[in-house]
Amino acid sequence: MITETLTVSRADFETRTGWQLKPEGACKGDICVPLAENPQGGTINLATLAPQLNMPLVHDEAHGVWALGPESMGSRVLATVEAPNLTLPTLDGETFELASLRGKKVVLVAWSPY
Q: Which residues pair with 67 in a beta bridge?
C-alpha cells in the first residue's frame, strides 16, 4: 500500500491490504491477529498498526510517500528495501554485480520454467 500520509481511512486500509479490522483483531482469510491497540472509528494510524501486523513501513522522503507491507506471518519478509548483492553471468561471459547499481532504482524480474 502506497500512501502520502500515515493516517488513512479504515475503508481504504481494508480495501488496499485485504485485512479486515474486527473486534477480535485484524483478520485476513482464516488468520486473525489480536491487536494491542485495535483502531476504533474510521481512521487508521499506520505507524501504530504496522508493527502489530509485522508489516514493514518505509518512508520515501524524496517523494513524500509511505509504503506499507507486505505482512509477514513467518518473518519471511526483507528487513529493508535494499536487495542483497547478486553476482550473475552475462550473455557475454562476463559477470554482473547487482551492487554496481546501488543507489539507483532497480526492478528485478525473475523467471523459471519449473
A: 2, 58
Closest C-alpha to 105, from 62, 56, 50: 62
- If pLDDT is split at 50, 70 and 90, which confidence band does 83 have? confident
Read off the pTM: 0.60
Residue 39, domain extent: 2-68
Please check the confidence at residue 76 and state whether its pLDDT lies above 70.
no
How far, in Å, CA of 100 to CA of 86, rounded?
10
**Residue 81 to residue 15: CA distance in whole angstroms:** 24
Q: How many domains does the chain have?
A: 1
Does residue 18 form part of some domain?
yes
Cell 525473475 -> residue:
110
